[in-house]
Design a protein that fits this description.
three-stranded antiparallel beta sheet, 5 strands, two-stranded antiparallel ribbon, globular, 91 residues, single chain, alpha+beta
Length: 91
C-alpha cells in the first residue's frame, strides 16, 4: 500500500506478521472508507474526486489517501484488469 503526501515523497506500507528490526513499524488505525476501482494508473485523480464526493455525503473530511494496486502494470495487461483499492482515512 502506498501514500504519496507530495509529488516528491512516497510512503510504502507492507503487511508483516511481526515487528521488523531497524524499521519504522507502524499500525494504521482510525476510520476508513474503502472502494475498489478498475482502471489505469492515470485514473487516480478521477477516483479521488469520486471518493471526495462520497465522503462529503457522509459529512466527513479526508485526512489521508492510501492506494493498493493488486497487480503490476505487466500483470494488469495480461489479466485485462488493473484493480486498485483506495483507502481514505477520514476525520
Amino acid at each position: 500500500m502506498a501514500c504519496d503526501p507530495s509529488p516528491w515523497i512516497s510512503e510504502l506500507y507492507l503487511a508483516v506478521t511481526k515487528a521488523v528490526p531497524e524499521a519504522r513499524n507502524v499500525a494504521l488505525s482510525g476510520t476508513f472508507f474503502t472502494k475498489v476501482f478498475d482502471g489505469p494508473y492515470n485514473a487516480v485523480p478521477k477516483w479521488i474526486k469520486e471518493m471526495d464526493t462520497q465522503i462529503a455525503s457522509h459529512s466527513k473530511s479526508v485526512k489521508r489517501y492510501y492506494f493498493y494496486f493488486t497487480t503490476c502494470p505487466m500483470c494488469a495487461k495480461t489479466y485485462g484488469h488493473n484493480y486498485a483499492v483506495v483507502l481514505v482515512q477520514v476525520e
